[in-house]
Queue: 3 jobs
Job 1
Amino acid sequence: MGVVKSKLLKQISNSFPNFPKKDLTKTINIILTEIKRALRRGDSVELRGFGRISVKTQKASIRRNPRTMEKVAVPEKKVIRWKQGKDLLKKINNEE
């Protein structure tokens, strides 16, 4: 299971017990809102050492439904792209 916002808030509040929980909640909400706004504008978001999030437009195409094998037209849409940072990749692979 991934990390949900409530668990993230709990971990941050344990790391910084001097900050009120409502301030930490507000800070997390502001950060996530700004990331969403940047992606909606088409900008990319880079968190140094962690990764880069960007939006790419996927062209319209004709694909097949694997269950029925009928052709389905898929309209153009925007998708989120993720590229991990070098530091994160090293930590995941225990290279540090």
Job 2
Amino acid sequence: MIELDVLDRNTFGDRQLREEVLGLFRQQSLQLMARLEETSSATDWKISAHKLKGSALGIGAQSVAQLAAQVEQAFFSNSLSSRDAALAPLRQAIEATNREISGLLA
């Protein structure tokens, strides 16, 4: 899920910085996912998805970045079932990425 060469390049090979960045991604990804699930604003939807995409690119989590880009461009719906269907693949990718992060930080 994470391209370690991208992560290492973006953290200058510094192990402590790498761990800090991974921890920040894990925290931010959960916050942004919650915001996407709860927002009633199309603007907040797009901003949250865009932030998530950028954060994922920073650690080399290409699948999360691609799915966040799709969500960013997706039509915002106030329907919770439509929103959940649009977000389900992104949620799964975030969960898988965060499991990988837990392994890297252990």
Job 3
Amino acid sequence: GQRSDTLMVIHVDPAEKTGFLVSFPRDLVVDIPGVGESKINAAFNTGPQRVVDTLRQNFNLDIHHYIEVDFQSFKEIVDAMGGVPVYLRAPARDLKSGFEPFGALGGPEGIPFGFTPGCYVLDGSMALNYVRSRNLEEHIDGEWRTDPRGDLARIERQQAFMRRLATEAFRRSVNSPRTALDIADSTIPKLKADESLNSDDVKKLIRSFRRVNPNDPTSLEMVTFPTVGASSRTLGSIQEAKQPDAEAVLARLRHFG
């Protein structure tokens, strides 16, 4: 079996040129068909159909298409874009995920010499370690400080990274339909999708959204599925749906037209 790092559901409306993306925390407790109560990331153990069935059974969400990005594909997509700039306000690291962008620069306890806050271009390997980080530390006021929010903080970084990646594609292709299709040709083969979603379908979406700025929150909105922290005797630290906020988000994913 295998567990998914990240689960996102996006509602795309080509006519309105809008996208509504919802990240589901991996520790959210759900009833997995054929398995029982577990964390939602375990739904992927037997493949994507179980994930689709879990979303339908627990949240009444009909999933029309499925796309999977594995670690190697993620790295290749980022490298195909020439890297992606990420803003760092302080030296940062995650020893568990391998995110150490300044470790090779030396300094006491790995603190980089001459570090200044700003945008740093991450290649595919370092970007993967960054978006997978659940134990990110920042060196602030002379000490390493860990973000206590864990996966919820990781979701924020992932969404911000996706905007950056999309912005790079937008910047290159906004004035060039050919460039947009070239980007598609270099990335689509790296994805795993359901049989009913073909390359032509994806390219139609690209043509519809080519001039949509991903930094415009009215065009591309990203949220985290509302949860509250809890604990379980059998599952340990968990997240549970926070109502009525969670139902309001689900209603937006269900509504078309």
